[in-house]
Amino acid sequence: MNDDIIVRNSLKAWFLAARPKTLSGAAVPVMIGLALAFKEITENQFNWIPALLCLLFAFVMQIDANFINDLFDFKKGNDNETRLGPARACAQGWIAPSSMFKAIVLTTLTACIIGFPLIFYGGIRLILIGLLCVIFCFLYTTYLSYHGLGDLLVLVFFGLIPVCIPYYILTHTISLLVVIASIACGLVIDTLLIVNNYRDYDNDKQVGKNTLIVKIGLKKGGLFYFLSGATAVTLGAIYVIYGYTLAFFLPLIYLILHYHTYQIMICIHKGKALNMVLGKTAFNMLAYGVLTTLGIILSSLLPL
Length: 304
Hints:
Elements: H1 11-18, H2 23-40, H3 48-76, H4 89-92, H5 97-115, H6 119-122, H7 126-142, H8 150-171, H9 176-199, H10 201-207, H11 212-216, H12 218-235, H13 238-241, H14 245-249, H15 252-268, H16 274-301
Helix pairs in contact: 2-3, 2-8, 2-9, 2-16, 3-5, 3-7, 3-8, 7-8, 8-9, 9-12, 9-16, 12-15, 15-16
């Protein structure tokens, strides 16, 4: 991307700052949670209003997290000239830090407005869940990611919460299947963070950002990447127990893609070329979500 064609504070600048490619990470867990809920209730009882609100809330919170990451990493000096990843809006001067701060306030308020009606479907306790989403959205970039806790947050906020909460809102129950499915989903989405931190190992180490990859090193970090995806597929065996046979077998395609991407990652090892692995990982993650969701729905419709 040639940054000289991007006008400061332009629509294109904001579009790039929102990082639309990351929205699949917000969509995948909600898709799985809604698909599981769809199986548990009849089509006529499935309420599309809270389902769409959950999806929209996830999208806006993801954009909010991207804005926060852009601004605060810039302020901490992490997005410097040694950065290997895609260009960031504040660091490139596409968006003024003051404008980014205002955008963060706006997206945070928008997410709260979107999420508030969900209490009428899932109860007052959802306010606490929403507050936790907002608080940890800020804490991730400003503190927790610098202390190796980013992967744990992904497991919670891209796994447990966005799978279990939509399911609970629509069914008012939680089962072991949903919890295990949410953990598997979180592990798959964490592969995106892992390869991102794997690529940024040298830069993160230099600026004192002690990600889990910095703590365990590149060799173990690469293995961690593969095992996260493989463990997720293994956990998917629980789908067979609950009668969602295809929800286990279809994601085996993801495992093949994931292993191939892992081989590419460890061969490249370092440098900007790892951005290609980041793109492949994002595609694999979306493939997992689509295959799992499709497997759940087909298992619900077909006598297997």
